[in-house]
Amino acid sequence: MTDLIYHHKFYTNQEPGQNLIIDLERTYIDKIILKCKPTDLFINSVWFEYDDNMERLLAQKPERIIIYSGYDWDDRGYRKSVHDKIKEHNDNIVYVGNTDGVGYFSFWLFFVEQNALKYKLDHYSSLPISKLFMSLNRRCHPHRVSFIKSLYENNLEEYGYISLGDDPENTFKPIFLPEDVNNEEGDKASGKMFGISNDITSLGNPSYWNNHLINIVTETGVNNNTFISEKTWKPILGFKPFMILGDYKVYEYLKDYGIDTFDDIFGTGYTNKDPKLREKWIIETLYKLKDKNYNDIYHSILPRLVKNKDAMSSIYKKNNDRFYTILNNL
Predict the structure, then answer these.
(1) CB-count burial class (<10 Å; 0-12, 13-18, 19+) for 314
(2) Which of 18, 76, 205, 284 is least enclosed, having the fewest CB within 10 Å?
(3) Rounded to an integer, what distance in angstroms lies between the CA atom of residue 243 and that of residue 111?
(4) Rounded distance, CA 294 to CA 300, Å?
(5) Which residues have C-beta within 8 Å of that of residue 281, sequence separation ≥ 6?
(6) 22 and 91: one domain?
(7) Is this prediction's pTM over 0.85?
(8) Angle at the Cα of 170 (from 164 to 175), degrees rounded to 5?
(9) Which domain CATH number covers 255?
(10) What is the per-residue DSSP string for 218-277?
(11) Which among 97, 130, 162 is the end of a domain?
């Protein structure tokens, strides 16, 4: 166990019971810290910066540094300067969490597993489907704004359910669903910002969910490798085919878990390293499918959707095994 532990003040300011995400994450962080050597420095990379606390900890000359990314992504892009500063002190660094390779495991799979009953559908909907897609977006990350603009530029808005949260710096008008859900525990975790509830523990309004064919997941980021949040697992739990605008290796990890990604219907545009080309792939695919019979497509792939849902128990186990393998190797 180590006493050299870094959390940003944003994290330490979260009181127990205040944030269901951090409450759960702390249980896994504690397990990692317990396995660290006394000479290790554990760094939680959520919102981290090269502040006085980190400078003080690095000055103690730890022999090894464990950098963890859990509910947030492995940010060696936007916060590259912080990572570089850490390396100046010690380049014996082990990355765990949302990091490609042997250190990978997903906190969000632990979260989804714990809250699985809240995402539960008793069975798939037999109602006629009238919308091609649903794309729900709360925070106005640039890739989400770009994608929503592309939907409108290609006259696809009438074929789907769309939302986009409000942001003072956003040049695109926010879009709110008329009967959106209110998720109090999600809002408690993040604050009710952007005009849209932080719906992290449900599939949303059942009428919207049941009435669309393709769930378009705009993940938290597009410029890293492996971040997969609850957003990606929702369509799998809710019997929907999906297309994902996210990190470059998201599909690689889903295939490793045994998930059917419907390449025969949607193609493999997700292999493009340029996120703008991945956005273009989704737009072009939606345009090709907009005049098809959505119900025929849905019922033709239903056995595959059920198989994806049934795979979740083995996926939870694989993620758990990955986590404990990492612990045992520390």
Answers:
(1) exposed
(2) 18
(3) 22
(4) 10
(5) 267, 269, 270, 272
(6) yes
(7) yes
(8) 25
(9) 3.40.50
(10) E-S-SSSS----HHHHHHHHTT--EEEES-TTHHHHHHHTT----HHHH-SGGG-SSHHH
(11) 97
- The amino acid sitting at 20 is L
Q: Report the SS3 class of residue 46.
A: coil
Domain of 121, in residue numbers: 111-313
Indicate the residue among 97, 125, 149 that finishes a domain: 97
Beta strand segments in the chain, E: 4-6, 40-44, 64-69, 93-97, 131-137, 160-164, 212-218, 242-245
Which amino acid, residue 184?
E
* pLDDT tens-digit readout, 113-171: 999 999 987 666 777 899 999 999 999 999 999 999 999 999 999 999 999 999 877 77
Residue 324 domain-assigned (yes or no): no
Q: Which residues of 161-186 are buried (b: 16+ CB within 10 A; e: fewer)?
A: bbbbbbbeeeeeebbeeeebeebebb
Please tell me the total count of domains within the chain.
2
Residues in contact with 178: Cβ distance below 8 Å, sequence separation at least 6, in sequence order: none
